[in-house]
Amino acid sequence: GNNDALARQMLAILGEIVPALCGRHDWQALIEDHTITTVASTETYALPSDFSRYVTETFWDATNYWPMRGSMDPQTWQALKRGLVAATIRKRYRIKGSLVYIYPTPTAVESLVAEYVSSKPILDNDGSTQKAAFAEDADTFLLPERLLQLELKWRLLEAKGLDYAEAMNLS
Length: 171
Description:
Elements: H1 5-23, E1 31-37, E2 44-46, E3 51-54, E4 60-61, E5 66-67, H2 74-82, E6 92-96, E7 99-103, E8 111-118, E9 122-123, E10 130-131, E11 140-141, H3 145-159, H4 165-170
Antiparallel strand pairs: 1-8, 2-7, 3-8, 4-5, 4-8, 6-7, 9-10, 9-11
Helix pairs in contact: 1-3
């Protein structure tokens, strides 16, 4: 609700910075657990609403104590689905759209678990809800605030047409 031009410009820049910072690293503050309880004959399952990406090598078939391979690229996925497969293989997964596809299609209730990076690095001002963008002055950034400050400084200098090289090197 702030009408100050600088505040509005900084908020717009923050809208670019936040996703960029979140994508740079698997930040501990953003790591969440995802559990899929399979249903017989069901291949697809919804991703969490705040899903950004799975943490590498954390997807497990917890029922059978096996790591899962994935996310499969389209070519490998089609070879698995359409090619001749002579033996039963451990479960694999593919992310397509907002769904997780499981291969082979589960035939029973099983538990699949993984860690993922949340796309919501901001805590609401009352501390109850994580969200993707700043909305109020009292919102809290869950990553190191210094990173946000350094990134905002050089981007604001750049937007104003000022020398920003030194500030950018610090971020």
